[in-house]
Amino acid sequence: MSKRKYTKIKGSEKEIFEMKGAGKTHREIADYLGIKDKNVVKNCVKRYRAKQRKLEKGIKINPKGRPSTKKQSLEDEIKRLKMENELLRDFIQLTGGR
Q1: What digits encode the pLDDT tens for the residues 5-34?
Q2: What is the 3-state secondary structure (H, E, C) of the chain?
Q3: Which pTM was predicted?
């Protein structure tokens, strides 16, 4: 069983679109970048155009993957701490402590 080979094309997107604007074909672009399959370039262009259509319609593009639980904005952290302080104050008053 052969392993699937992935081509990192994210860094070459600018070059691809410049060549595409100059009228180059997918095969010519793939040959220039040293990519064996022209479909890699074709799919890259296809994904970019789909993303642009969504942006034009005003659809928010969500980042891929699971959201990080560690990253929390400073404002959210301050809000959480203020609520926690209020709860602790109320608890101390109810229990008769100072």
Answers
A1: 666 787 888 899 999 999 999 999 999 998
A2: CCCCCCCCCHHHHHHHHHHHHCCCCHHHHHHHHCCCCHHHHHHHHHHHHHHHHHHHHCCCCCCCCCCCCCCCCHHHHHHHHHHHHHHHHHHHHHHCCC
A3: 0.57
